[in-house]
Amino acid sequence: MQSPLFPLEKPTQIIQSNGDVIYYPSIFSEEESNELMLSLIHNIEWKQEPIWLFGKKIMQPRLTALYGDQDVNYGYSGITMRPNPWNETLIFIKSKIENLLKSEFTHVLMNFYRDGQDSMGWHRDNEKNLGLNPIIASVSFGTSREFQLRRYESKLEKKSVMLNHGSLLLMQGETQHYWEHQIPKRKKVNDPRINLTFRKILG
Ligand SMILES: O=C(O)CCC(=O)C(=O)O
Ligand SMILES: [Fe+2]
Fold first, then answer.
1. Residue 191: strand, helix, or coil
2. CA angle 161, 10, 16 (to 5 degrees)
3. What ipTM does the predicted assembly reach?
4. Residue 149's beta-bridge partner residues?
5. Distance CA 43, CA 5 (A)
6. How many separate domains does the chain show?
7. How close is the Cα of 127 to the center of ligand 2, in Å?
8. Domain of 193: which CATH number?
């Protein structure tokens, strides 16, 4: 019998140097993941929000939400988000990964990709208030989408991993200095996906 605190399948290392990216294929069972996905669809205040990109205000190609401890605000790409308070579903998921990783998180930034037309462009999670070498725990539910990583400076070396229903992708160490990541559009994907990135935001 496997302890429920431990992932059901072996974790794999995605990059070989200048950072640490570990993929846990299923930290939640299929059944648990289905329930969590439904709960997140219904119990999260999803919004489509604008960002500033090259001096222009544009709508993000996905829905987003920020939940977390109440005393800190969080912003990226020229916007500031005020966190909603934790709810039961989020506390359940947060406890699971905090136990697994022996690390604590203050916020979760969530993305709802309605179908393959929704995406997230190349970026690094390197906001100042995440600290020098942030630990980011990214949980996925719903249809699998390809997560791509590439060297920030040369743009040459690339890695890719399919993020499955109930999986966890951990990024830590120097990853955000040397690698950028994205979720590209996929014409053939018609189903939704929800991603939660748990972060530790320094006040
Ligand atoms: O949807 C994903 O897996 C990636 C999300 C992401 O990179 C972010 O929220 O910063
Ligand atoms: Fe990111």
1. coil
2. 50
3. 0.99
4. 159, 181
5. 25
6. 1
7. 10
8. 2.60.120.590
The answer as to whether 63 is a domain residue is: no
Residue 75 forms part of a structural domain = no
| DSSP label at residue 71 | T
Tell me if 70 sits within 8 A of 164, measured CB to CB: no
Q: Is 152 left (phi over 0), alpha (psi -120 to 50) or beta?
A: alpha
Any idea which ligand is nearest the CA of 63? 1
Q: Which residues span the domain enclosing 163?
A: 12-46+86-199
pLDDT per residue of the chain (203 residues) written in tens, 0 to 9:
444 555 557 899 999 999 999 999 999 999 999 999 999 999 999 999 988 888 999 999 999 999 999 877 666 666 676 799 999 999 999 999 999 999 999 999 999 999 999 999 999 999 999 999 999 999 999 999 999 999 999 999 999 999 999 999 999 999 999 999 999 999 999 999 999 999 999 87
Distance, CA 123 to ligand 1 centroid (Å)? 9
Task: Give, to the nearest 10 degrees, the angle between helix 88-101 and helix 30-43.
Answer: 130
Single-letter amino acid code for the residue at 131: G
Q: Evaluate whether residue 100 is within a structural domain.
A: yes
Establish if 138 belongs to a structural domain. yes
* Pair 178, 19: CB distance under 8 Å: yes
Handedness of CA 17, 21, 22, 23 (dihedral sign): negative
Query: Which one of 195, 198, 199, 201 would you pick to mutate in the ligand 1 pocket, going by the greatest count of ligand atoms within 8 A of its CB?
Result: 195
What does the angle CA 83 – CA 79 – CA 66 come to, to the nearest 5 degrees?
25
